[in-house]
């Protein structure tokens, strides 16, 4: 028998109701629900993985937790956990994270990816379909089979993609056929239940055209799902590639498509402008938001274009010996060392400091619209080997954000007197709310402490919870303290601050598989069909205007806002950048040239072209070069 929970009050239940024995009871804790604002000392009863009672009445269960002096909160939700290996999942459970998903890199082969985790995963798991993997197939010819095409093989696949001397996925623009093939792969992942599309366009800003990015977001929008993006110019602080310009691109796409959008690690230059725009968009009803991680340094690999000299020194003005820390050497590197690693070990982990974050962090923890996503990396030791579940926490060599991001936020907020309810919103509710609003049922029943919700619960001491991980070798993977109990789907996975061996309570976070996909190929017809109906009349060409003018014949008047939808006689791909053509051929236009007599220039051009062609009209390619 289920009790009735009212926002801001305790449930009222008959004596019969509390005669039952629950699977788990949590007693005398401070129960906090970010959605309703409920914040009271109460007892929680859990049955069959669900919260079935929140009350001040005495209750009993097969297993009992004394939560006196502790907060009973919704389990934390992380949208950027790359370390979905057993050790990475384990250390994040110690950080209170009950749902661990990768929305940036994502995965390929969605059916196999979920199948490989079923029944053997300790936390809830989910993924998006990765744009980068689709581009690797199309532009680098990689096969990419099986259920492990995700971050675990990410850097190895990047190295493989460049074996022929060209890193196609990142640097080669797609023509129409290639773009449609990539989008079709994204659609297939969405059909199979992927939570959206994940894009690493920030690492492929020369390869992914604006229209290809638009098509990727449109693929997700056809399902009502999000695109989650490491945007094009993160973290540039210089015009014309300011960080905000990259956000503008994907935000405009999301708004015109009416589609959800999540922006990764919005914790660098320009975050204030991004947050203002996102909030204004939300005020207009758009489902758009972003995440930050609470560290003054980021993490990546030496081969990343973001920290190459032209950007890191040229655009950002940073010095390598002050900002690039090598976790294996346990010190900052010189520029010569950086260049050597970038050439010979491009996949090697680098910790990248951003000094302004020390001040910005004080603001981030006060913004309710932000979410926390730790951007945790794979669990690698000092030799670069993937660690086993049993590996000591001290063996991890990498960024401490893999181990302590969520406890760090709790500590920082406590020290700054930020309301705890706001912090819990950042840690769990904001992601659950935004994902739930895409129609994802699994997130509509998580991120909340209410009756009728899934019992993903994190119990922590608000006075002592803190990160233990830091940048010092041997301490980079230390688990957080002050989080003694974590329940996943009603099962105790962390008990007395120990992750329980062999307890695989994680459930898939996934959309239902659909029988058929929703892919629509991009083409000229699609664009013209959106712009205007076909009236059966063609817009006059420049040459028609010139010829009619010479004959004193009035040119045909084009109906207002009507344009031709006639296929050109020669093939012309609207979607392929013409990088190899002379700029003059691209941008010279006789109509806008700075001649003293533009009309005479038009006549001269027409006569010259007709003379060149023996008195015949120039073909369409020649007309385009003129126009």
Automatic annotation (TrEMBL):
Keywords from the named record: Hydrolase, Signal
Listed GO MF terms: N-acyl-D-glutamate deacylase activity
Signal peptide annotation: 1-19
Enzyme Commission number, as recorded: 3.5.1.82
Region (Disordered): 606-627
Record-linked NCBIfam families: PRK09061.1
Protein name: N-acyl-D-glutamate deacylase
Taxonomic placement: Bacteria, Pseudomonadati, Pseudomonadota, Alphaproteobacteria, Rhodobacterales
């Amino acid at each position: 028998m289920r009790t009735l929970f009212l926002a801001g009050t305790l449930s009222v239940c008959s004596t019969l109701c509390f005669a039952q024995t629950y699977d788990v009871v949590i007693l005398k804790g401070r129960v906090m629900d970010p959605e309703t604002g409920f914040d009271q000392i109460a007892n929680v009863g859990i049955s069959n993985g669900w919260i079935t009672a929140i009350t001040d009445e005495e209750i009993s269960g097969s297993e009992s937790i004394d939560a006196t002096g502790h907060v009973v909160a919704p389990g934390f939700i992380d949208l950027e956990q790359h370390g979905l290996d057993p050790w990475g999942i384990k250390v994040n459970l110690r950080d209170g994270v009950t749902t661990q998903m990768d929305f940036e890199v994502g995965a390929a082969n969605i059916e196999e990816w979920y199948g490989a985790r079923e029944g053997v995963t300790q936390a809830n798991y989910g993924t998006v379909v990765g744009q980068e993997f689709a581009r690797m197939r199309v532009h680098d010819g990689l096969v990419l089979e099986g259920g492990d095409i995700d971050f675990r093989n990410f850097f190895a696949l990047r190295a493989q993609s460049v074996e022929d001397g060209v890193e196609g996925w990142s640097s080669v623009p797609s023509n129409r056929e290639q773009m449609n093939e990539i989008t079709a792969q994204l659609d297939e992942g969405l059909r199979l239940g992927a939570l959206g599309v994940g894009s690493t366009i920030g690492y492929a800003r020369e390869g992914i055209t604006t229209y290809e990015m638009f098509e990727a977001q449109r693929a997700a929008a056809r399902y009502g799902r999000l695109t989650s993006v490491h945007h094009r110019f993160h973290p540039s602080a210089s015009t014309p590639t300011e960080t905000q310009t990259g956000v503008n691109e994907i935000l405009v796409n999301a708004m015109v498509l009416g589609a959800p959008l999540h922006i990764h690690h919005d914790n660098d230059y320009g975050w204030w402008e991004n947050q203002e725009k996102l909030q204004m968009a939300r005020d207009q009803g758009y489902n758009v938001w972003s995440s930050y991680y609470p560290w003054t340094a980021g993490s990546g690999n030496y081969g990343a274009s973001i920290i190459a000299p032209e950007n890191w020194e040229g655009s950002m003005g940073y010095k390598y010996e002050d900002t690039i820390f090598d976790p294996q050497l346990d010190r900052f590197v010189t520029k010569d060392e950086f260049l050597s690693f970038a050439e010979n070990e491009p996949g090697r982990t680098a910790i990248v400091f951003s000094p302004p974050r020390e001040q910005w962090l004080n603001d981030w923890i006060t913004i309710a619209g932000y979410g926390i996503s730790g951007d945790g990396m794979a669990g690698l030791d000092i030799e670069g080997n993937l660690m086993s579940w049993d590996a000591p926490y001290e063996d991890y060599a990498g960024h401490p954000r893999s181990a302590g991001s969520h406890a760090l936020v709790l500590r920082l907020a406590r020290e700054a007197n930020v309301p705890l309810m706001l912090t819990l919103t950042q840690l769990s509710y904001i992601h659950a709310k935004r994902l739930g609003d895409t129609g994802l049922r699994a997130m509509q029943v998580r991120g909340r402490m209410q009756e009728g919700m899934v019992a993903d619960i994190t119990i922590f001491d608000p006075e002592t919870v803190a990160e233990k991980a830091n940048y010092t070798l041997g301490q980079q993977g230390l688990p957080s303290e002050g989080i003694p109990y974590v329940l996943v789907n009603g099962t105790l996975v962390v008990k007395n601050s120990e992750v329980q061996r062999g307890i695989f309570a994680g459930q898939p976070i996934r959309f239902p598989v659909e029988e058929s996909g929703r892919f629509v190929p991009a083409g000229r017809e699609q664009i013209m069909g959106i712009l205007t109906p076909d009236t059966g009349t063609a817009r006059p060409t420049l040459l028609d205007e010139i010829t009619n003018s010479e004959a004193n014949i009035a040119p045909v008047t084009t109906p207002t806002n009507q344009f031709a939808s006639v296929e050109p006689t020669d093939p012309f791909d609207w979607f392929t950048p013409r990088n190899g053509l002379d700029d003059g051929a691209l941008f010279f236009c006789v109509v806008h040239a700075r001649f003293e007599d533009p009309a005479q220039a038009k006549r001269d051009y027409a006569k010259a072209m007709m003379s060149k062609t023996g008195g015949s009209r120039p073909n369409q390619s020649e007309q385009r070069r003129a126009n």
